[in-house]
Amino acid sequence: MKKIPTLFILLTLAATLSAQTYPFIQYKENQLLYADRSENLAKFFDRWERMEATGLGNINIVHIGGSHVQAGTMSNAIRQRLMHSHPHLVGGRGLLFPYAAAARCNNPADYRVHCPQKVALTRNIYKEYPQPLGLCGISVTASDSLTEVGIVLRDSTVDYATTRIIVLGHSNQGVEPLLNLGGCTIRPSYVDHSTDRHVFNLDHPVDSFVVLLPCRTGEQFTLTGIHLDNLRSGFSFHSVGVNGAAVPDYLRCEHFCCDLRLLRPDMVIFGLGINDASKSDFDTADFRRNYLALVDSILRVNPDCALVFITNNDSYTKVSRKKYKVNAKGELAREVFHRLACETGGVVWDQFQLMGGLGSMEQWQKAKLAQTDRVHFTRAGYQLLGDLFYNALTDAHQKHSSKK
Fold first, then answer.
1. In this predicted structure, what is the pLDDT of residue 16?
2. Mean pLDDT of all residues belonging to the chain
3. 3-state SS of the chain?
4. What pLDDT is recorded for position 303?
5. Higher local confidence (pLDDT), 121 or 403
6. Which of 34, 279, 309, 367 has CA 20 to 30 A from 248's CA?
7. What is the pLDDT of residue 1?
8. Which pLDDT tens digit goes with each residue over 327-341?
9. What is the CA radius of gyration of the chain?
10. Which domains does the chain have, with CATH numbers?
């Protein structure tokens, strides 16, 4: 019963934010472009409608990107809108990573992480890394002693309690993770070493737990992700983000496809490109080629996966102290996203035009929707973008349904 007032307050705040209009935002651009040409998007909507009609089935959406996605706010805004509009169709919380287990690593606000021991952080943006990475593009490595990684789900408006937890990771010394639930230590139900999956089937649903990594002297365990699954029908929205990541960084993740098969993606939302276009040697041909390689890896996992390309947001580059100039490469990247959608059967959410085009980030910053670096958004800005994306997605869904 305590969840109802909280849900009401959050829904009221979200509705207020969505209802507020800003003169610099081009609301007419809030749509999924090329939706009527995308066979895979039509299949996605058909699957959505079957699940609504029968109450059976699962839809998995994966949002992949850099710091915009690691922050978690935009992803969670979309996730919450989906769950609140389909309260009888809530699947698992999905794949997450314990970012805050490492020092100075920001974590999404919808779950809390506690790790009192020191762990080594590896991100896919590093030139070299000792252990292979997976879909999350990031890992933490425990060494020489027992390490505890606690997870507490914090969204009181959605029931994400799960009876199936899959710990992704590997150890050259044969270390296997354990779970601590209320002081009770549990071993994996089974382990698949070929995919680095340690599966825990629980006899009751939980929304908080501790992953134990029992390393002894000379031993290590590298944790690459935690998948919160369950047997309920509904939506699962997975967000995968690494601060500073560009498209080639995910191409270097050796276990990317293996982990993606675990999620069985019905839709992938691409939020990658802002870091590619921030480089002085940004080349549109290389950008397109790398993106096509990433798309190819996803379609090998599911040829029917719907692809949504989010264009880069307008951004600025720092010239000197307190002085910035607009990054004109945002327009070049935007053209590539439209081309990619046409080549791959995907769709485009033109965030660049929706914001107001070149130089619009200045207005977002003045309205306290963007941070002073004029690259990242504030919490309110990310929340607004998530709400706008959700509206564009559901509008496309309604148009698809009306044609039947």
1. 52
2. 94
3. CCHHHHHHHHHHHHHHHHHCCCCCCCHHHCCEECHHHCHHHHHHHHHHHHHHHHCCCEEEEEEEECHHHHCCHHHHHHHHHHHHHCCCCECCCEEECCHHHCCCCCCCCCEEEECCCCCEEEECCCCCCCCCCECCCEEEEEECCEEEEEEEECCCCCCCCEEEEEEEEECCCCCCCEEEECCEEECCCEEECCCCEEEEEEEEEECEEEEEEECCCCCEEEEEEEEEECCCCEEEEEEEECCCCCHHHHHCCCEHHHHHHHHCCCEEEEECCCCCCCCCCCCHHHHHHHHHHHHHHHHHHCCCCEEEEECCCCCEEEEECCEEEECCHHHHHHHHHHHHHHHHCCEEECHHHHHCCCCCHHHHHHCCCECCCCCCECHHHHHHHHHHHHHHHHHHHHHHHHCC
4. 98
5. 121
6. 34
7. 34
8. 999 999 999 999 999
9. 21
10. 1-91+232-404 (3.40.50.1110), 94-231 (2.60.120.1360)
pLDDT for 220? 97
Separation between Cα atoms, residue 118 and residue 140, nearest integer Å: 10
Q: What is the pLDDT of residues 225-262, one digit of tens each?
A: 999 998 899 999 999 999 999 999 999 999 999 999 99
- Residue 58: CA count within 13 A, CB half-sphere: 17
